[in-house]
Amino acid sequence: MPTSPSVLHLAATAAIDLQLHTTYSDGSWTPEALLDHLAQAQFGLAAITDHDSLQHIAPTQQLAVAKTMPLLAAVEMTTRWRGEMVDLLCFGIDPAGPMLNNLIDDLLQRQQENTREVLANLAQQGFRFAEETQAAILVQPPCLQPHALVSLVNEHGGDPGGGPAGPLILRAGAAFMTHEPAAVVAATHQAGGVCLVAHPGRTDGYLTFDSKLLAEFGHETAVDGLEVYYPRHTPAQTAEYQAFAERHQLLVSAGSDSHGPDRPPIQYRADQCRALLARVGIVVD
Known about the structure:
This protein is an alpha/beta fold. The protein has helices spanning 31-40, 57-66, 98-124, 131-138, 145-155, 165-171, 181-190, 211-221, 235-248, 274-279; strands spanning 3-4, 8-10, 15-20, 43-48, 71-81, 84-91, 194-197, 225-229, 251-254, 268-269, 282-284. Strand 7 (194-197), helix 8 and strand 8 form a beta-alpha-beta unit. Helix 3 packs antiparallel against helix 7 (181-190) and helix 5 crosses helix 6. The two termini are 21 Å apart. The model has no long low-confidence stretch (mean pLDDT 96).
């Protein structure tokens, strides 16, 4: 079921935000606080896109139904393409989709293996961490485990050499595990959803796409569209991405990437994402 409720009509001017994060991954919003904010601000639809996990979908949808706040089932998946990070937004998915669950389980296992390796290497350098502290890191979402290792080192006096903790855990082998993008697209389709490139214009640690790279990425992965409307995109980027989507008949999404109240959701218009919403069963009047 793609949304709560499952049948939805939106006015063209209805407020939507299709990229939001909560404490289920790296956000500071609790799901309840975020949904309360969205309802009070009279959003017509939102998508909580917590990273590389489907655990948030059922409880947040149940909470959304109780608050009569329509919520689209979604997840943001971390991938790597040509050596650089590319996030993918998956909308309208069945959270029981086996391919998607297998990818997520595999990513968590690989991240846990990496975390154990880092902890072992730190132990060889003289660090001593309680077993329960190590276990608590291993059950965190994959995107949080490297950050938790940095915090753990800082709590135990930091780098003995006097440097920052981040480079120390990198030398100990810490890495962010990622998916193959084509596998994510295929798994999303198998789960009944659509898959779009998130924030293609970001420059801070992500691959920054131009039209040429988008075309090559689309050819290799069969991705369904891109997040055209994003607060860090320049007007020129937004215009380029919109034109590219129109030229190639791709779906368009719009998201604030809000992780907490300090960067609140943005009221995009439903008609900016009309084709995407139609694909997941939502009618924009």
